[in-house]
Amino acid sequence: MSNEDTPSFRTRGRSIGSDGELSWGGNEGNADNESWNDAIEESNGITITEDGTIETGSEIPDSVTSRPDDDSSNTGPDEGRGLVVNPNSDFGKFGAVISNNTSGVTRARLYDYSQSTYVESVDISGLSSGDAFVFETDVVSGTDYGVELDDSGDSYTLGFYGGADDFPFTGDDFDIIAQSQDGVQSTSAAPQAVNDVGNSGL
């Protein structure tokens, strides 16, 4: 059978011919390359370069690591409180959940312990306990990150679990290894403010 007789696969202006090569030309009234690439990248965690090369990038976690639910709360703290997490793979984004007794928080921040600085801030003013939020900063396997919540300097209600000696809580994609408070971690303090970590909310 000649190449002309061999069917090719075509979708929205992209085709795989009989030689197995991917063609990126000819939109033919379909979505342009940029919007098509964005859709593929969003759903698959990959990067498509300008010349059509597909590069494997950071992926979304497949699982969630949890610590026990809050059994107490404290009204009055105004500093950032949360958990130290350590990813077991590189990820381009991950989610976390506001713990069940925590309320009045408006901001979630990600602290990179390897750089000793906050690297992302997320507005969570419209969320409440049990709701998930997402960080979209690349995180690196084996690096400690603080997931901290606060009310931008005002006081809030902090939920926590009394079993301070229970660290770490381990999982396939993330380990929860300590408490994080204003960029300082402690394994002798109670898990607080944040619960599930991984693909929550994604």
Provide an overview of this structure.
By secondary structure, the chain is mainly beta. It has two domains: 9-56, no CATH class; 64-198, Sandwich (Jelly Rolls). Helix content is 6%, strand content 37%. The chain is built from one helix and 17 strands. The protein has one helix spanning 33-44, and strands spanning 9-11, 14-16, 22-23, 46-48, 54-56, 64-65, 72-75, 81-87, 94-98, 107-112, 117-123, 132-135, 145-150, 157-160, 174-181, 184-186, 194-198. It has a six-stranded antiparallel β-sheet, with no helix packed on it. Strands 6-17-9-12 form a four-stranded antiparallel β-sheet, with no helix packed on it. It has a three-stranded antiparallel β-sheet with strand order 1-2-3, with no helix packed on it. Strand 15 and strand 16 (184-186) form a beta hairpin. It is globular. Mean pLDDT is 82; it is low at 2-18 and 20-31.
- Give the tally of β-strands: 17
Strand order of the biggest β-sheet: 11-10-13-8-15-16
The total count of helices amounts to 1
CATH architecture of the largest domain: Sandwich
**CATH class of the largest domain, please?**
Mainly Beta
The assigned structural class equals mainly beta
- How widely separated are the two ends? 46 Å
Described by strand count, sense and barrel closure, the largest sheet is: 6 strands, antiparallel
